[in-house]
Amino acid sequence: MYQHQFHPTILRAYDIRGIIGKTLFAEDAYAIGAGFAQIIKQKLGKDHVKIAVGYDGRTSSPMLAEALVSGLVDGGAEVISIGMGPTPMLYFADITLDCDGAIQITGSHNPKDYNGFKMVAGHKSFFAGDIQTLGAMMAKGIALSSKGSHVEHEIFDDYIARLLDDAVELDGQFVWDTGNGAAGPSVRALISKLSGQHELLFEEVDGTFPNHHPDPVDPHTLAFLQEACDKIGAICGLGFDGDGDRLGVIDAKGRPVPGDILTAFLGVEFLARCPGETILFDVKSSQTAMQIITQAGGNTQLWKTGHSHMKTKMAEINCQLAGEMSGHIFIKDGYFGYDDALYVAVRVLRAMVQTKQSITQFMDSLPPSFTSPECRVPCDDEIKFDVMKHLADDAETNIGKDPNRQVITIDGIRVQDETGWWLIRASNTEACLVVRAEGVDEASLQAQIADVKQALAEQNITWDYP
Question: Do 428 and 393 have their domain in common?
Answer without folding.
Answer: yes
